[in-house]
């Protein structure tokens, strides 16, 4: 569907659900994604999420697939759209075996291109925990800038951490 240098973004398929469940339940992945207690999700909950997907709700979720192998790597999407103010909020996750290979940055660039060129959105935001330095570095590579911090917003690994708010404008994306 939407291709970059290493990955394509495509629709979710029923056969992705088992791998998505496996990847999202990896403790190291889970602790980076949820503000609550990183408790394992049941397969039935992932199936329910899959069954609830619809492009008619202003949320758009894509599976991330390797161009080389066709393997499911994770997911990304638009979690919220403010049409009046032309702002979208995005999120992304990869299975741990695919970290540090450039897949996430490639997927985010494709997602941004889709948002700016197909949806006519002016600004994209995301939130990330301050201890997720790898993700922050990837987002900066994609052109995101730190816009603010919610101090000591999440409790993880025995202490409080900030939640970092990042954003990119269409004009900044077009210049990169």
Describe this structure in words.
An 8-stranded mixed sheet has the order 1-2-3-4-5-6-8-7, sandwiched between helices. It has helices at residues 16-24, 27-33, 43-51, 103-118, 133-141, 170-175, and strands at 2-3, 7-10, 60-66, 72-82, 87-94, 123-129, 145-156, 159-169. By secondary structure, it is α+β, with helices and mostly antiparallel strands. The relative contact order is 0.15. It has 6 helices and 8 strands. The chain has one domain: Gcn5-related N-acetyltransferase (GNAT) (Aminopeptidase), CATH 3.40.630.
Compact summary:
By secondary structure, the protein is an alpha+beta fold.
Number of helices: 6
What would the average pLDDT be, to the nearest integer? Answer: 94
* N to C succession of SSEs: EEHHHEEEHEHEEH
CATH class: Alpha Beta
Stretches where pLDDT is under 50 for at least 5 consecutive residues are none
Major beta-sheet overview? 8 strands, mixed
Helix content: 25-40%
Radius of gyration from the alpha-carbon trace, in angstroms: 16 Å
- Give, in spatial order, the strands making up the sheet with the most strands: 1-2-3-4-5-6-8-7
Name the beta content range: 35-45%
Overall tally of structural domains: 1
Using the coordinates shown, work out and report the CATH topology.
Aminopeptidase
What is the annotated CATH architecture?
3-Layer(aba) Sandwich
Gap from first CA to last CA? 23 Å
The H-level CATH homologous superfamily, spelled out, is Gcn5-related N-acetyltransferase (GNAT)
Structural class: alpha+beta
């Amino acid at each position: 569907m939407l291709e970059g240098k290493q990955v394509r973004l495509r629709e979710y398929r029923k056969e992705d659900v088992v791998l998505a469940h496996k990847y999202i339940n990896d403790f190291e992945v889970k602790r980076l994604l949820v503000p609550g207690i990183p408790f394992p999700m049941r397969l039935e909950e992932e199936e329910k999420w899959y069954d609830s997907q619809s492009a008619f709700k202003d949320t758009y979720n894509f599976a991330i697939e390797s161009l080389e192998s066709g393997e499911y790597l994770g997911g990304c999407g638009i979690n919220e759209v403010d049409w009046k103010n032309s702002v979208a909020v995005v999120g992304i996750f990869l299975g741990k075996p695919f970290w540090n290979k450039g897949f996430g940055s490639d997927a985010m660039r494709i997602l941004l291109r889709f948002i700016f060129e197909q949806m006519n959105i002016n600004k994209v935001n995301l939130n990330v925990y301050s201890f997720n330095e790898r993700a922050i570095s990837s987002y900066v590579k994609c052109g995101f800038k730190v816009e603010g911090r919610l101090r000591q917003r999440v409790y993880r690994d025995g202490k409080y951490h900030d939640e970092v708010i990042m954003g990119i404008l269409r004009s900044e994306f077009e210049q990169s």
